[in-house]
Amino acid sequence: MIKLKADFVITMNKNYDILQNAEVLFDEKIIDIGYNLPGESIYLGKNSVLMPALINTHTHLEFSSNKTDLMYGDFITWLESVINKKEELFVSCKGDCYKRAIEEMKKSGICAFGEISSSGGDLKYLKHSPLKVVYFNEIIGTNPAIADAMYQDFLNRLNESVHMQNKNFIPAVSIHSPYSVHPILMDKIIEIAKEKKLPIEAHFMESQAERRWLDKGEGEFKLFFDKHFKNAKPLIKPLEFIEKFKNTNTTFIHCVYANEEELQKISEIKASIAHCPVSNRLLNVGKLDLEKVKNNKIDYSVATDGLSSNYSLNLFKEIRAALLMHTDLHPKYLAKDLLKSVTINAAKQLNLNNGSIEKEKSADLIALKLPDDIDDIEKIPIQIILHTTEVEELYINGKKI
Ligand code: MCF
Ligand code: FE
Is residue 279 a contact partner of residue 305, using CB atoms and an 8 Å limit? Predict the structure, then answer.
């Protein structure tokens, strides 16, 4: 049993309680939070903060060897560069490359991440990860002639990951996007997810090109599809796509171009959104309208996406970018929301029993220091985001990492 005492304990409970000079008692799970709890306490020091560890809901670690290979600035140009460089990047990401990616996340206080696996090549490097992994086996493919083969390959990868399942490694599924997966494949995979209660992630309405293609079969995606697959047509309407995920735990990634009707549908089926602001900026697709997301009562997480569209997997850097980018929102309240987005909201999306400091939750915690004294707890969220890049301590399942 360990008892930590901090100047500020951010619980991330429903009331967003921040307790001063409080203690947290835990073993693998959180036993109690409060004052004068039994046993010797370890004081985390002046201006210390103890809070739930962060959760990065959406990564693509297979691309972690990318630094200068991919082309930023335009979505379709980026996609072409991914198609050209993917194999090369995957081959060059081996043990050390995964270790570095995980190390960077760990330093920024991440205890768990959602990994989109397109090849399964990452499994052997991630199955013994020190961080919790929710492993999303990705399906991609619109060509009915090879749909069976794609499905079989997907099933093999999924089964392998299901065999690895333990409390820190959780299998899941990902349908790449409405423009890149055949509806027949979507249905089969959603059925499996329902049956096995697996979380789902799907990229959705990331670019203007995707919007035009799905609405009208026009635009840059038409040129892209004409070049790669002759006579392609959009295979599904965006609303129909969302509707398919009813009665599942689905997170739609990006949603920059989702319209009001689609956001309402996402809300209605109780799905959620992952927002990747740096990725959206680098692929130059604009930014998610967080105000509309909130008005529709949709929970969102903030995630880094992969090094395929980011320079870093550090989640504090990501929420700092979000804080600075969303100039239409009040920074004090946005900061509060952003901390929620990478803890309790993210935990819900990944089906994890963490993300808040409450009894019976996994003891996944971080300790960090504010740069100076704070006279009003209202100031804490924004100051944490402005001044934290790496954390002082990370506990996962009650063990210091
Ligand atoms: O989220 C970003 C941008 N949107 C779509 N896909 C990806 C992202 N980062 C990596 N990807 C992967 C995706 O999982 O790139 C491939 C897929 O395997 C694109 S389709 C050739
Ligand atoms: Fe992504």
Answer: yes
| The one-letter amino acid at 204 | F
Helix axes 220-228, 75-92, angle to 10 degrees: 50
Does the annotation count 206 as an active-site position?
yes
Q: Is the pLDDT of residue 229 over 90?
A: no
- For residue 304, report the phi and psi dihedrals to the nearest 5 degrees: -85, -20
A 10 A CB-CB count for 92 gives 13
**Structural domain containing residue 125:** 54-350
Q: Clarify whether residues 251 and 290 are in a common domain.
A: yes
125 and 236 within one domain: yes
- The yes-or-no verdict on residue 262 having pLDDT over 90 is yes
Number of domains, the chain: 2
Q: According to the model, what pLDDT value does residue 208 have?
A: 98
The answer to whether residue 341 scores a pLDDT higher than 90 is yes
- Render pLDDT for 12-43 as a digit per residue (tens, 0 to 9): 999 999 999 999 999 999 999 999 999 999 99
Statement to judge: residues 46 and 74 lie in one domain? no
Pocket of ligand 1 (CB under 6 A): 60, 63, 82-83, 116, 118, 138, 140, 176, 180, 203, 206, 279, 305-306, 308-309
Shared domain check, 335 and 313: yes
Neighbours of ion ligand 2 (CB under 5 A): 305
